[in-house]
Q: What sequence folds into this?
């Protein structure tokens, strides 16, 4: 059975927009992926600071707290990280009480956008056409 997205706002947000990963990104750019992975694993118990998009995402998720609007907004984390290096992101989501339960982890591939669309499409019978049943935004 397909996941029902009728009347939902689905937002894909990068982990770097949600959290301040400037130090981690600098390590990645200057020292490479191995140093980055090592740093992430060494700091997996450290919570990340909010990033530029944090307050917007928090406000949008608060719509779900309005009676009759439960589940109206869904946020999907989009990251080039692997599941191992994303542990800090998920721990930080839990720490800040954000109701985010889904993610697209590309493990270094170029784009997460196609994966987000795959997560949120519903196929029609009799072909490869898709119709969108909700609004999708990438931050």
A:
């Amino acid at each position: 059975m397909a996941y029902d997205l009728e009347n939902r706002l689905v937002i894909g947000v990068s982990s770097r927009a949600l959290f301040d990963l400037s130090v981690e990104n600098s390590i990645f750019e200057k020292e490479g992926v191995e140093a980055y992975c090592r740093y992430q694993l060494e700091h997996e118990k450290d919570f990340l600071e909010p990033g530029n998009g944090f307050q917007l995402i928090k406000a949008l998720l608060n719509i779900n707290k309005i009676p009759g609007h439960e589940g109206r907004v869904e946020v999907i984390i989009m990251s080039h990280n692997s599941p191992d290096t994303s542990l800090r992101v998920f721990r930080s989501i839990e720490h800040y009480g954000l109701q985010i339960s889904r993610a697209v982890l590309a493990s270094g591939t170029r784009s997460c956008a196609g994966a987000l669309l795959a997560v949120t499409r519903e196929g029609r019978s009799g072909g490869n056409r898709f119709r969108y049943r909700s609004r999708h935004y990438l931050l």
User: Anything to note?
Assistant: The chain has a mean pLDDT of 79. The longest strand covers residues 73-79.
